[in-house]
C-alpha cells in the first residue's frame, strides 16, 4: 500500500501551479532554448520544498544517490534518458567505470549503485564498479537488502587511464561527490570523467549554484508572469567563518537577520502567518551535515560547543569556512502526519522520476536530509511528464509536473554554474 | 485480461535472440554510431514477422497510425522521446499543425490522431489538427469510441504558410502518407514539414527501403556474427507492370520463381520443412491493398479479373505499376490460436512501445494488414528497453528487446533511404 499524500495548500501555490500548467508550451519552449545554450549535467537530483505558498529547490545534487528509490515502473524512462545522455557525452563509449562513494557499509547507498549500474547496462554499456577505498584490494561481492548484489573492484591506474582488472573503460562515471577533495588517482585522466571533477565539492559552491538559480528564476518568473520569490529562496554567504575559533559569527548573524527581515516582508505581503526561519549550511558539502535552522540572528551567536562542532565539519572531515544562509522553506506536504520532501531525479535534461523523503519524527521546518537519518522513500506514483489538463492544478500529475519544472530550473542553474568553474587543467595549473 | 502469448520457437531464432542479447553493448554502440551519421525520422512504425526461425521487418511506416494501441503505461516514454525529437527537428517550435489522413469515418484512426496530439501536447507543444478534406469547411468535433473527442479544422493557406483559423504554427507534422500525391496546399511551405514530403508514397518506394535495409542487415549481421538472412527477407522489383492490361507479368513470375528458389535453399540449409511463399505488393503504397501471397510463380500468370483489379490500385486509387516481390516470412506468434504480428513504434530513434495485431480468422502466412481488416491490438506488456539478462533468451522482455533491435535496423534503413530521394525543391524543379 502506498500512503495517501496530503498537502495543506493555500492560495498562492495553487495559483503558481495553475500558472505553470497554463504556460506549459511556453515553459517547454523556453527550456528547449536553455538546453540549446547550456549542456545539462549527466544526471542530478533536486531537493524541493513545497510550502503551500512557495515551491523551491533547496539543494541540487550532481551525484544523485537514490536511483533505487524511484518507481520501478519508470525504469524504461531512465534507460531512454541514459541513452540520450550517453549519445551526447560519450557516444563512442562501450564500457564505463562507475566510481561510487566510499560508504560500503551503507547498503541503501549500494542499492543506488546497483540501480544505476542496471540503468547503464540496459542503455547498452558494459559497466564495472571501481572502489576508491584502499582496503578494496580484490574484487568483492556485497549482498544487498533487496536480494541483488554488487561487485566492487579495486581501481587501477595505468598511465593516464583508470581501469579495473581486465577492463579498460572508455569513460569514468562519478557517483562520488568528492567531498574529501579529488583523489590523486582521478586526476589528469585521459578518459572523459562524467560529471567533470569540477562538479565535486572541492570546487563547487552552493552559493554559486543559487546565484545562477537567481538569474534562472528571474527569467522564468518573467516568462510566466509570477513573483520570482515564489520559486526562489533568499540567500547570502559568509566566506570567513571559523566555528571552532568563533570567528565570523557576526557576518553570519547579520545575514540571518537580513534574510529573516526580507522573508518577514514577503510573508506579510502574502498574508502568511508562519514565523520565518533561515537555514545555515556549509557552502561546499552535502549529506545534511553542517546544517542548522535558526529563527533569530541571536541563535548563531549563542551556539554551544556541540553545535559549533557539528557545524565545523561536513562529510569526510572537510572543514567548513564558507557558509550559505538560505531562507527556510516550510514543508507542507505530509504522509500520515509525517513530513514529506520531494526529490526529483533527472538524467541529462529529462525528468525520470522522483520520490518523497518521508520522516515521521521531524517538524515541517527541519532538514530531512540529516546525518544518520533514515527516511522512508515514497516513490512518485505517476511520472512527472504527464500533467492532466482536465484535472485540478493540484492533482498529483499536475503537482509532479510543477515539480519537474522547478527541478529543471535548478538543473539549468547547475548547467550555468558548471560553466563558471575553472576546468580541471586550469585547476591543476593554479595548484601547481 | 491480456491473453497469453505463445510462440512456437525452433532453434535458429532462440540462437538469434541469444546472439542479440549477448551482443547488446556492441549493438547499442553500433546504433549510436548510425544515429551520428543518419538523422532518424521523426517517428515510424515497423511491422515485424517472427517465424520462429527468422525475425524480420516486412514494412516500415513513416506515418504511423496506431499510437492509440500502445500500452498507456508507456505514455511518459512517448512524451520523453517526443521532447527529444522536437529538440532535434524543430527546437524553436511552440505550435504544431498536425495533418492527418482523410479517413474521418475511421474512428480507430482518429483515436491515433488524438493519442498523437496528446503526446505532442505533453511534450509542450500547442497542437491543432488541420484536415485536408475539402468538405471540412468549419471546425468540427468528432466523438471517439474511447470517450475522447477530436477537433478537425479546415486548413488555410496564407502565402507560403499553412494555418488554421487563429493559429499560425511553427511546423507542420504529417500523419498522412500522401498516397494520393502531394496536395497543392502542402507544396512549397516555408514552415518545416515533418516528416518531409518526400517521405510520402508519391516519392517513396519500398524497394528503396529494402535496398537500404539490405546494407544495414549485412553490416549488423557481420557485427554480431549471424547469417543476415535471419533478419532479412529476399526481395526483387518489377518496374513495368500493368495488371489491367496484363503486361509485365513474366517479369513478376521470373522474380517470384527466383525468390522461392533462394528461400527453398535457405530452408534446406536450416532444416525448415515449411513451404516457402512470396508476397507481391505495390512498391509504393500502404494499408495492405495491392498485396498477394503466392507459393508458385505460375500463380501470378493465372490471376483472374478480380485478383488483377485488386492488385491494380492501392489506397486513394493510386495505380500500381511498380511491384515488390518479397520473401514471405511466416508468423509463428499466436494468441489463443490467433495469428499475432508485432508492430514496433518509434519516436526519433527511441523505441517507445509496440503492439500485436491479432487476427483470429487468418493463417500464419497471410497479410494481417489487409483492407477492412479489423485486427485486435494487443499492447506489449513490458517495454522494449528492459531486457532481462537473467531470463531465457525468449522471455517477453528479451523477445521485445530483440524486436526493438530489428525495428531500429529498419529505422536506420529508412533514414538512409530518405537521404537518397530528391528534396522537395529538387522534386519541384523536376516536375516543372
Would you write up a description of this structure?
2 copies of one chain form a homodimer. The first copy, chain A, contains 10 helices and 19 strands. Chain A has 432 residues and is an alpha+beta fold. Chain A has 3 domains: 1-62 and 204-233 and 331-432, no CATH class; 69-194, Glutamate-cysteine ligase, N-terminal domain (Rossmann fold, 3-Layer(aba) Sandwich), CATH 3.40.50.11280; 235-328, Dna Ligase, domain 1 (2-Layer Sandwich), CATH 3.30.1490. In chain A, strands 1, 2, 3, 16, 17, 18 and 19 form a 7-stranded antiparallel sheet that branches. A 6-stranded mixed sheet of chain A has the order 6-7-5-4-10-11. The A-B interface holds A 24-29, 31-33, 35-36, 73-77, 79-81, 83-84, 86-87, 91-95, 121-126, 350, 383, 385-387, 389 and B 24-29, 31-33, 35-36, 73-77, 79-81, 83-84, 86-87, 91-95, 121-126, 350, 383, 385-387, 389.
What descriptors fit this protein?
homodimer; 432 residues; alpha+beta; Rossmann fold; Dna Ligase, domain 1; 3 domains; 7-stranded antiparallel beta sheet; 6-stranded mixed beta sheet; 10 helices; 23% strand; globular; disordered N terminus; glutamate-cysteine ligase activity (chains A, B)
Amino acid at each position: 500500500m502506498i500512503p495517501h499524500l496530503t498537502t495543506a495548500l493555500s492560495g498562492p501555490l495553487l495559483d503558481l501551479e495553475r500558472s505553470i500548467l497554463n504556460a506549459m508550451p511556453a515553459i517547454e519552449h523556453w527550456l528547449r532554448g536553455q538546453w540549446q545554450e547550456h549542456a545539462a549535467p549527466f544526471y542530478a537530483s533536486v531537493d524541493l520544498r513545497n510550502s503551500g505558498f512557495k515551491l523551491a529547490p533547496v539543494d541540487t545534487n550532481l551525484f544523485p544517490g537514490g536511483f533505487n528509490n524511484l518507481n520501478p515502473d519508470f525504469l524504461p524512462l531512465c534507460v531512454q534518458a541514459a541513452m540520450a545522455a550517453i549519445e551526447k557525452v560519450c557516444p563512442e563509449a562501450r564500457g564505463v567505470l562507475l566510481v561510487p562513494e566510499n560508504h560500503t557499509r551503507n547498503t541503501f547507498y549500494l542499492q543506488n549503485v546497483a540501480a544505476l549500474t542496471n540503468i547503464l547496462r540496459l542503455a547498452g554499456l558494459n559497466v564495472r564498479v571501481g572502489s576508491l577505498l584502499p582496503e578494496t584490494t580484490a574484487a568483492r561481492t556485497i549482498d544487498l537488502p533487496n536480494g541483488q548484489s554488487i561487485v566492487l573492484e579495486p581501481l587501477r591506474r595505468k598511465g593516464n587511464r583508470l581501469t579495473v582488472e581486465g577492463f579498460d573503460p572508455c569513460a569514468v562515471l562519478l557517483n562520488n561527490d568528492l567531498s574529501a577533495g579529488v583523489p590523486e588517482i582521478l586526476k589528469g585522466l585521459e578518459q572523459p570523467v562524467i560529471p567533470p571533477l569540477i562538479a565535486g565539492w572541492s570546487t563547487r559552491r552552493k552559493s554559486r549554484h543559487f546565484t545562477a538559480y537567481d538569474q534562472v528564476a528571474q527569467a522564468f518568473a518573467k516568462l510566466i508572469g509570477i513573483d520570482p520569490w515564489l520559486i526562489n529562496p533568499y540567500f547570502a554567504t559568509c566566506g570567513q567563518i571559523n566555528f571552532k575559533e568563533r570567528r565570523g559569527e557576526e557576518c553570519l548573524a547579520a545575514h540571518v537577520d537580513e534574510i529573516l527581515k526580507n522573508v518577514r516582508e514577503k510573508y506579510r505581503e502574502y498574508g502568511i502567518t508562519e514565523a520565518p526561519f533561515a537555514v545555515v549550511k556549509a557552502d561546499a558539502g552535502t549529506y545534511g551535515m553542517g546544517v542548522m535552522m535558526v529563527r533569530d540572528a541571536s541563535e548563531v551567536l549563542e551556539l554551544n560547543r556541540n553545535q559549533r562542532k557539528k557545524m565545523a565539519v561536513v562529510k569526510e572531515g572537510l572543514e567548513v569556512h564558507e557558509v550559505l544562509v538560505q531562507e527556510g522553506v516550510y514543508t507542507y506536504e505530509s504522509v500520515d502526519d509525517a513530513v514529506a520532501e520531494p526529490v526529483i531525479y533527472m538524467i541529462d535534461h529529462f525528468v525520470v522520476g522522483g520520490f518523497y523523503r518521508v520522516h515521521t519524527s521531524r517538524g515541517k521546518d527541519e532538514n530531512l536530509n540529516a546525518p544518520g537519518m533514515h527516511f522512508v522513500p515514497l516513490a512518485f506514483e505517476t511520472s512527472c511528464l504527464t500533467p492532466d489538463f482536465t484535472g485540478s492544478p493540484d492533482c498529483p500529475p499536475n503537482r509532479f509536473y510543477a515539480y519537474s519544472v522547478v527541478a529543471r530550473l535548478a538543473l539549468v542553474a547547475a548547467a550555468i554554474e558548471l560553466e563558471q568553474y575553472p576546468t580541471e587543467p586550469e585547476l591543476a595549473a593554479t595548484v601547481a
